[in-house]
Structures are given as C-alpha cells and as structure tokens.
Specification:
alpha/beta; Methionyl-tRNA Fmet Formyltransferase, Chain A, domain 2; 2 domains; seven-stranded mixed sheet; seven-stranded antiparallel sheet; 8 helices; 28% strand; Methionyl-tRNA formyltransferase; Formyl_trans_C_sf; methionyl-tRNA formyltransferase activity; protein biosynthesis
Length: 308
C-alpha cells in the first residue's frame, strides 16, 4: 500500500521504521517544522524527519494542514492510508478524507482511558497497573475514533515515563504494521467504538507539577518522580539549591516529612506516609548521579531536610 506517515518525536520513529522495512511504500512524511534546540538554539530537524531523509523519503513540514497548497500536495499522493503517531498538528477533515482507506493513529494508552496529550505520564501518576497502545481511526474529535487494535503493557514499580515510552513505541510499531497488513489483504479494518462513559483525559504536563510536596504519600511521590523522568523532572530544595530527583522508590516506615533518616542505601526521606528512597539526583550545574556518587561529593547528614 501507498502510505503517508505523519509524526514528529522519537515515539513515532519505530512505526515509521517498521513501515519502511515492510512491503508498503511510505511515499511522503509529514512532520513539524525544524525547531531551535540546544545551547546555540540552532534549528534541529525532528527525529522523524531525520529518519525519513536517511531513506530518501520526501518530507513536508507545514506549520498548518489548513493551507490549500499543502492539502493539494497531500491529495496528489493519492495514498491508500495516512498513519499518524504523535504528529502534533490538527488534521483537518478534508485531509482525513483524502486517503483511500482512511487515517489511523497510534495512541499511547488503552483507550478510552487517557485521551489527550500526556497519557504515559498520567497513567503513572494515577497508579495504573497497566497501560498500552491503541490503534484507532482518526476523527476530528480528540482521540475519539473507533479502536482497531490494542496492546497492553504492565507498569512496574521501576518504570519511568521514558521506559514506558520506549516499550509503547515498539508495541505501537508492531500493531500498526499488523493493521496495515490487514488493510492491504482485506480492504477494511474492524473497528470498535469507544465507551464514552469510561473516558478520562490526560492533560498536558505543567512544570509546576514537578515540585515535590513531602507531606504526600511516598507511593504517590515515587510515581511523581518516575512519571516526570525525563521531563520535566521532579524537584525539591536541598541546602538552599534546587535539586532534581530522577529516580525514587517508596519504602515502609515513618519520619518527619522532608527529613533525611538514612544514608546507607540511597537517601531515605520521610513523607506524609511512608519513606522515599532517592536513588538518582542532580544539583544545578552538576551531573545526574546515583545517590552514593552524589553523597561522595555532597556530604549530607541525618536530620538534613528537603523542602519545597
């Protein structure tokens, strides 16, 4: 089949790679315009653009898909399907109607739970036992299309947003390729409508959510730390400086919130309920370090406090 692929970040790379390696033809890639990045703020192509160019696939980077000239370029492809993965732009109905067999999205949750911008992080924050990927029809309403395929992924106590991201991207690639193969062989895909009574929304992350409140339960704080790794990274204050906390686990026990009670195996801190063992952390201008390496260069003592 002739496929147009729309995606931008790293999450969208495995599916594009799988389609490139398959018998299908990716005739055009849509991705967001190059953005300033790094200390020099030089324009940087998206990961999807870089992969497409490696394989000599034409790339289109419009600021909007509402432009008539852009729509004409997409229509001229006469594509069989449009595959979408974390593209980041609204796709107008006119464009959705262009591919012969429809438009399909890789969404990083088990819909109808966690529609919206940050499904991976919200599933971690909520303490969900599993997350997953849904291959769905693209419709004008936010993540509301009928479901084609779903694949689950358990959430462990060691998972971060990054580890889940990587696992879900791989699952999404396999499921989307399966869907496109089915579409090629049968000409249609069986779709199940979402149960609107079960819908939840994954609001975009705000940097203000990264601040740790030590009066919360240790379990909730562990999930917060892991959900915000690698962005925006949970933080607290330590000896008057902002301290970024990259990894932490909840332990049994009780101590005054924010107070360091042990330095033997990680930095163990009291919470509203339970204890939090900080395993990786970082001070301004410093490297991200394991707790033992951090303590070698930043001596702490029992009774020292983390604050907001």
């Amino acid at each position: 089949m002739k496929i147009i692929y729309a995606g931008t970040p790293e999450f969208a790379m495995p599916a594009l790679a799988a389609l490139i390696e398959s018998s299908h033809e990716v005739s055009l890639v849509l991705t967001q315009p190059d953005r300033p990045a790094g200390r020099g703020m030089k324009l940087k192509p998206s990961p999807v653009k870089s992969l497409a160019l490696e394989h000599n696939i034409p790339v289109l980077q419009p600021e909007t898909l509402k432009d008539a000239a852009v729509q004409a370029q997409i229509a001229a492809e006469n594509a069989d399907a449009l595959v979408v993965a974390a593209y980041g732009l609204i796709i107008p109905t006119a464009v959705l109607n262009m591919p012969r067999h429809g438009c399909y999205n890789i969404h990083a949750s088990l819909l109808p739970r966690w529609r919206g911008a940050a499904p991976i992080q919200r599933s971690l924050l909520a303490g969900d036992k599993e997350t997953g990927v849904t291959i769905m029809e693209v419709v004008p309403a936010l993540d509301a299309g009928a479901m084609i395929l779903r694949g689950a992924l358990p959430i462990t106590a060691q998972d971060t947003a990054q580890t889940l991201h990587d696992g879900l991207a791989d699952i999404g690639a396999k499921l989307m390729l399966q869907a496109m193969n089915q579409l090629e062989s049968t000409g249609k895909l069986v779709a199940e409508p979402q149960d609107e009574s079960l819908v939840t929304y994954a609001e975009k992350l705000q940097k203000s959510e990264a601040a740790i409140d030590w009066h919360q339960d240790a379990e909730a704080l562990s999930r917060q730390v892991r959900a915000f790794n690698p962005f925006p990274v949970a933080q607290s204050t330590l000896q008057g400086e902002t301290c970024r906390i990259w990894m932490a686990q909840a332990l049994d026990g009780q101590a005054e919130p924010g107070t360091i009670v042990s330095l033997d195996q990680g930095i163990i801190v009291g919470c509203g309920k339970g204890l939090l063992r900080i395993d990786e952390l970082q001070l301004p201008g410093g490297k991200r370090l394991k707790a033992r390496d951090f303590l070698a260069g930043n001596p702490l003592k029992l009774g020292d406090k983390f604050g907001r």
